[in-house]
Amino acid sequence: MLGLGVSSKLNAEWAFLTHLRECGRKAAQDWLSQHYEDLGIRNTLDLSWIFDESLKPAHLPEGAERGSVIKQAAR
After folding, report:
1. Distance CA 14, CA 29 (A)
2. Domain segments of the chain: what residues?
3. Which CA distances in Å does 62 have to 23, 56, 65, 67, 69?
4. How far apart are CA 31 and CA 23, in angstroms?
5. Does the structure show a pLDDT above 90 at 57?
6. Could you give the CA distance from residue 15 to residue 33 in angstroms, rounded to a whole number?
7. Cα(75)–Cα(60) distance, rounded to whole angstroms?
8. Which of these, 67, 28, 55, lies nearest to 44 by C-alpha position?
9. What pTM was computed for the model?
10. Tens digits of residue pLDDT in 2-28
11. Could you tell me if 8 and 16 are in contact, meaning their C-beta atoms sit under 8 angstroms apart?
12. What is the Cα 23 distance to its own chain's centre?
């Protein structure tokens, strides 16, 4: 979709819609060819990078581990 222009978002012509469908089918087939053996065995998409930054506590100093501030305060 990134390679398509802005006007493509409003294009409801049948030929264009069938083109998109075929592109989707090809992408799905390519993905299955690459990952079929992994289904049900391991993660096939690593989303951890999305959450790496957002799950860091904002109030901790740079490099501090979660729980380290609480442990120091308890001493």
Report:
1. 22
2. 11-42
3. 45, 10, 9, 14, 12
4. 12
5. no
6. 27
7. 18
8. 28
9. 0.52
10. 788 888 989 999 999 999 999 999 999
11. yes
12. 20
Contact 52, 43 (CB under 8 A): no
Distance between the two ends of the chain, CA-based, in angstroms? 55
Which tokens go with 61? 């100093």
Task: Retrieve residue 2's tokens.
Answer: 């990134």
User: Half-sphere exposure (CA, 13 Å, Cβ side) for 7?
Assistant: 2
Copy the structure tokens of residue 33.
Answer: 């060819």
Rounded-to-integer distance, Cα 61 and Cα 37, Å: 43
Residue with tokens 């222009």: 5
Q: Which helix (H) or strand (E) holds 17?
A: helix 14-35
